[in-house]
UniProtKB/TrEMBL annotation:
<feature type="domain" description="ABC transporter">
    <location>
        <begin position="4"/>
        <end position="235"/>
    </location>
</feature>
<keyword id="KW-0547">Nucleotide-binding</keyword>
<dbReference type="InterPro" id="IPR003439">
    <property type="entry name" value="ABC_transporter-like_ATP-bd"/>
</dbReference>
<comment type="similarity">
    <text>Belongs to the ABC transporter superfamily.</text>
</comment>
<keyword id="KW-0067">ATP-binding</keyword>
<dbReference type="InterPro" id="IPR027417">
    <property type="entry name" value="P-loop_NTPase"/>
</dbReference>
<dbReference type="GO" id="GO:0016887">
    <property type="term" value="F:ATP hydrolysis activity"/>
</dbReference>
<dbReference type="GO" id="GO:0005524">
    <property type="term" value="F:ATP binding"/>
</dbReference>
<dbReference type="InterPro" id="IPR003593">
    <property type="entry name" value="AAA+_ATPase"/>
</dbReference>
<protein>
    <submittedName>
        <fullName>ABC2-1 family ABC transporter ATPase</fullName>
    </submittedName>
</protein>
<dbReference type="Pfam" id="PF00005">
    <property type="entry name" value="ABC_tran"/>
</dbReference>
<keyword id="KW-0813">Transport</keyword>
Amino acid sequence: MMELEAANLSKKYGNFYALQDFNLDVHKGECVALLGPNGAGKSTLLKISTNIIHPTRGTLKIAGINVQDDPMKALEKVGPLVELPEFYPYLNGTEILNFVCKVKGASKEKIKDEIERLSSMLKMEEFINKKSGSYSRGMKQRLALACSMTMDPELLILDEPTFGLDPRGMREFIEIIREINVKEGKTVILSTHLISEAREIADKVVIINHGTKMLEMKNERETNLMNVTFYSKPEASTLETSSIKVIEDHGNTVTIQRDENISNDDVIDYFREKNLKIRWIEPTNQIERKYLELIN
Ligand SMILES: Nc1ncnc2c1ncn2[C@@H]1O[C@H](COP(=O)(O)OP(=O)(O)OP(=O)(O)O)[C@@H](O)[C@H]1O
């Protein structure tokens, strides 16, 4: 069964479609990144998924249950993080988690276990007993993730989870989410406007813009593509061998794809042998290429 399933989902504000005929399947254990610029419709999809807003048409099912028909049941095993979290500043992390667990009906012993489990998993030991008013954005974000993970949900729905974090905080947070996905086996759907983030974390990347799905593709974590910029425009034929293909030609810059059996260094050596003067090289990947092609 699909963990999350959007079928012909649309959300209209007046004459404007924030989301239009959107289809998506998220399998159990998968990590899916919704990638798109501001206003693309990512939050709209995630808010419909968590029943914060209702679709104009179409259906959104979680574990086979229509969220609109039976939100309590559909969202029972969902951990949402969909708005910038704020907490009562005079409560500490333990008190906040305690409250959330209580609302979800956990027993005293269970609450104690949950707080210990989450505090260690999300590396919150150092600050969990300090007042949340003193937390940095990153600490608040961890506490928010801990709240959404209380009582062990199967599916995490995270709207721009690294928004507002500094580069180091972003990296740490992404690593935590990846661990939850890979080690704990939780299904994750998250939104981001950063290509690098989508590439780092997702199994599947869905590019979204103007409320529609532009592309859905498997994420290859290893890349065998690079953009090579030469001092002067080379002949495509001098660049190609049985192991090196030119897949795009933009004058001085070409995108080349190498076979798995040679390395990037081999490619550079080959160009040097041919006396082709290289000015700049950067790795690229299909997601980046497609994103720039579709969004710009
Ligand atoms: N309540 C509303 N009334 C009218 N338009 C809305 C409303 N909520 C969202 N929109 C519009 O719908 C579009 C999609 O918004 P959405 O928040 O889903 O984008 P997003 O991809 O999450 O972008 P961001 O990264 O900025 O959050 C935007 O153009 C937004 O202005």
